[in-house]
Amino acid sequence: MRIRTLVAATGALALSLVSGCAQGGAAGSSANTVTYWLWDANQLPAYQACAKGFEKENPGLKVKITQLGWSDYWTKLTAGFIAGTQPDVFTDHIQNFGQFADLKVLEPLDDLGIEDSDYQPGLAANWIGKDGHRYGAPKDWDTVALFYNSKMTQDAGLTAEQLNGLSWNPEDGGTFEKTIAHLTIDRNGKRGDEPGFDKNNVKVYGMASNGGGFGDGQTQWSNFAASAGWSYLDKPRWGTEYQYDSKTFQSVIRWYFGLAKKGYMPPLSDYNVQSNQANTQVAAGKAATAFDGAWMISTYAGFKGKDIKTALTPAGPTGKRATMMNGLADSVTKAAKNKAGARKWVAYLASDRCQTVVGRSGVVFPATPAGTEAAVAAYRKKGIDVSAFTEPLADKNRFRTFSYPIASYSADMTALMAPAMEDIYGNGKPVSSLDQTNDQINLILSQ
Question: Is the keyword Kinase in the record (predicted)?
Fold first, then answer.
């Protein structure tokens, strides 16, 4: 589960005030135990199976796994860094990597022999710090696609071929906006592209809302901005300047949140990170489509009475389709009590021996090609087509894949961008207001 909240951001900020205070090792650690934390309950059985395989290969070593919900996970991890009760190994998110690396709470993993070519493109390189050291071993990856209610699209006369061939632009929205408008239905039965459509009384929105998107917009506006040629930073990794003041970016944001003004997407007031996310809106029949990540495949497939399918992200002004390709990693904490065991466990987690086991669970795409293939096969057995998520990796001529922004002070960026984007989406603030926000972020980044 990869829900974006400010919990991690504020936790990292708190950590920055007391960095270096932690002493001692991980709670529950010992010379023959490796403590490991993760947040996804759906993946727990697969990693329990990996632990059994690891323990068989390493007699005398035991793995103690703790699973926590997303918000509790980052809160307790941050508190653990401060109090010295952190685990030996934890599932790391690129959203927090910059902050953790700067605060020196991660153990270098240069001795693990992690090679870029052993994993899907870019996943290994993303976990190299500014100092040139490795702080994470690739774990899994995800991309974003368009989930859609096939009955609603069929009723609207739309085919799967049409949905996979959409394009957009920030001037009139292209065929994508036309499609979203046509899928929108007001309480009188009028579609969004028909005369008399009442945008203030919508029964079914053409596209669900996943909120303002913070500063990354992973399942909101990121694919549009990237397919327009925009990048978060001046460099792919460890950039020194954010580019939210870009005219290109601001034109994308103006158009994207303009869909809500037209009635094709719910207003911000309808969105709730706990109870009314995009998938909830689709499940309730309140939205026909939703951009969401690969980690949500099983969730959408499990909606009773609904046949949810997926389509590629729309092609943008550059002629390419785009999707964020995010990847998690396993990291060892600097104060881990059992560092030797932790290194062995992380190396095992990053190997095909574990990643094919995880892949066969059909919950996530593991980082190695063999692990990915196992996952695709597992989804196929369940009758789920995941090609909308895997195609972007296979065809770089048609697709642009890009990473979550990797830079220092990422928590500060999120803390500033979250309210800025919500002001634009929910309060009608002009997109030009991002100029000032961008200046504030870059001032912090320049320190």
Answer: no
| pLDDT value at 71 more than 70 | yes
Q: Clarify whether residues 244 and 302 are in a common domain.
A: yes
CA distance to 234, 284, 372, 388, per residue, from 358 (Å): 35, 31, 9, 20
- The pLDDT tens digits for 102-142 are 889 999 999 999 999 999 999 999 999 999 999 999 999 99
The neighbouring-strand residues paired with 331 are 90
Burial (CB count <10 Å: 0-12, 13-18, 19+), residue 218: buried
Count of domains for the chain: 2
Strands across the sheet with 62-67, in order? 62-67, 33-38, 89-92, 326-332, 137-142, 365-366
Report d(CA 248, CA 232) in Å as an integer: 11
Give the angle 57-62-63 at the CA atoms, nearest 5°: 105
Question: Which secondary-structure segment (H or E) carries 424?
Answer: helix 410-427
Residue of 361, 398, 364 lying closest to 120 (CA atoms): 364
Q: Which domain holds residue 53?
A: 33-141+326-395
φ and ψ at 52, to 5 degrees?
A: -65, -40
Task: Return the C-alpha torsion angle 8, 14, 19, 21, nearest 10.
Answer: -110
Asked if residue 201 and residue 180 are part of one domain, the reply reads yes
Contact between 264 and 204 under an 8 Å Cβ cutoff? The reply is no
Please report, for the domain that includes residue 282, its CATH number.
Answer: 3.40.190.10
Q: What single letter denotes the amino acid at residue 148? A: Y
The confidence band for 13, taking pLDDT boundaries of 50, 70 and 90, is very low
Question: Kind of pairing, strands 308-311 and 321-324?
Answer: unpaired
> Do residues 332 and 293 share a domain?
no
Per DSSP, the three-state class of 238 is coil
H/E run at residue 309: strand 308-311
Could you tell me the two tokens for 211? Answer: 């909120």
Per the listing, tokens 């059992």 go with 338
Q: What percent of the chain has pLDDT over 70?
A: 93
